[in-house]
Each structure stands twice: as structure tokens, then as C-alpha cells.
Amino acid sequence: MLAKFLPTWMVQATYDISPTKLKELGIKVVLTDLDNTLIAWNNPYGTQELRTWMAALKAAGIALVVVSNNSQTRVDRAVSKLELPFVSRALKPLTRGIKKAMHDYQVTKDEVVMVGDQLLTDIWAANNSGIASILVKPILPSDAWNTRINRFFEKFVMTALVKKYPKLTYRKDININERNTK
């Protein structure tokens, strides 16, 4: 049961994930959660750091797609300035949103990775879909009200994960030669 929440990698911040390393892994599409993963939940404009990372992904030939449980209106408002494609109402931890994005971009499970800040939605959805995942620390220490419930339960899950998998730690980037294994 605990393995459902085990991320493939853990990285300090989304923008620390190296497009070069993703390319080496054969990744063609990065799926990312929206709030507190790609942008601060209360700042739909993003940062210069985000724009730099997006440009590096594009230069590496890697598509970036937002997969969010939020409504279409909320996601569209948040990503329109960033000109990013998205799947709204993804129903994570179910696989609907991930499967839709994979179908739209015609990629296999080995060509996609899910990046998110929540074990109970993003990482679980990736594992349910059979794809690699990257858990990142939330951009902000605060969350929207509906995420605070997940964070409460995540503390217990993370404690159990670290106990079972003592090497789990946030790193500066992914290590393509080392994955967390179940």
C-alpha cells in the first residue's frame, strides 16, 4: 500500500529539474501539477525562474503540460499568460488526466514524467498510471484551504515512507542512475 505514494525522484524545486537529464531519460512530455508546483497558488503570473525553465524545456524538445484537479476556468486563467496546454478536472489520484495528456501527445509511459508537490494526488496518480514521478517541495509554505486537508494526511504518509525507504531525500536534481524503488 505504501508503495503507491513512493515518488521515483524527489527534487527541491520544479525549476531545479534538468531538461538535459530528462532528455537523457527519453522524456518527451513533462506533466506538472499547477498550484504550488509550477506556480505559487496565489500568483498566477509565475516567475522569471519559471519562464527560464520553460524555455530550457522547449529548447530540449520537451513539452510541458499542466495536469490539474482545478476547474477549466481556474487553470485557463492561471496558465493563459504562460501559454501552456492543460488538462483540467484531472481527478488525481485517478489516471484520467494523465491518460488524456499521454493520448493527446501520443507518448508512451517511458516518455512522460509527472511533477507534483503532493503525495496523495500527483505521485499516487503517476504510480496508478505506471509513469515516473518527481515530488517537489511546495513553492509556498501555505496552501489553498482544500489542500490543507491533504497536507495533514501527507505528513503521516511521508513519515512512513522515510521509515520504510530511509534513503528518501530531496535532492538538487534527478539522478538518472538512481530511482526510488518499491
User: In terms of structural class, how would the helical and strand content be classed?
Assistant: alpha/beta
Largest sheet, in brief, is: 6 strands, parallel
Helix content: 25-40%
User: How many distinct domains?
Assistant: 1
Order of the strands making up the biggest sheet: 1-6-5-2-3-4
What is the N-to-C order of secondary-structure elements (H for helix, E for strand)?
A: EHEHEHEHEHEH
Oligomer: single chain
Shape: globular
Number of strands: 6
Helix run count = 6
Protein name: HAD superfamily hydrolase
GO molecular function, one term: phosphatidylglycerophosphatase activity
InterPro entries: HAD-like_sf (IPR036412), HAD-SF_hydro_IIIA (IPR006549), HAD_2 (IPR041492), HAD_sf (IPR023214), PGPP1/Gep4 (IPR010021)
GO cellular component, one term: cytoplasm
Question: What's a quick, concise take on this entry?
Answer:
The chain has 182 residues and is of the alpha/beta class. The chain has 6 helices and 6 strands; from the N terminus they run βαβαβαβαβαβα.
